[in-house]
Amino acid sequence: MTATTTAMSTTATTTAEKTGARTSEAADVITGARERVDSLDDRIIGLIQERMAVSAVIQEARISSGGRRVNLAREMEVLGHYRDALGKPGTGLAMTLLELCRGRV
C-alpha cells in the first residue's frame, strides 16, 4: 500500500467512524447535513437568547406596573401554540423555553 493510499484509507475510515456511514458518498451527505444542522442550531440559540431578552422587558413592565412576573393565561397560549405546531413534544419544548425566559415559578 502506498502512502497516499494509506492516507486516503485512513481518512475514509475516520469519516465513516464520525458519521456511521458505510460509503464515502453517504459520509459526504451526512457531513454536509450536519454542518447545516450546526448552523441551524446556532440560529436557534440566537433566537432563544433574543426571546429571553424580550421576555425580560415584558416581565419588567408587568412587575413595575404592579402585576405579577408570570401571566399563566399567556403561558397556556404559548404551550398550545407549540403543541399545535409540533405535537406533544412541542409542549415540552415550550415548557423549556418558558423556563429559560422566566425562570422556575
UniProtKB/TrEMBL annotation:
Ranges annotated as biased composition (Low complexity): 1-23
Keywords, ordered alphabetically: Isomerase
Pfam families per record: CM_2 (PF01817)
BP terms from Gene Ontology: chorismate metabolic process
Record-annotated Chorismate mutase domain positions: 24-105
Record bears the keyword Isomerase: yes
Molecular function per GO: chorismate mutase activity
Region listing for Disordered, in residue ranges: 1-24
Record-listed E.C. numbers: 5.4.99.5
Keyword Nuclease: no
NCBIfam families: PRK07857.1
Name assigned to this protein: Chorismate mutase
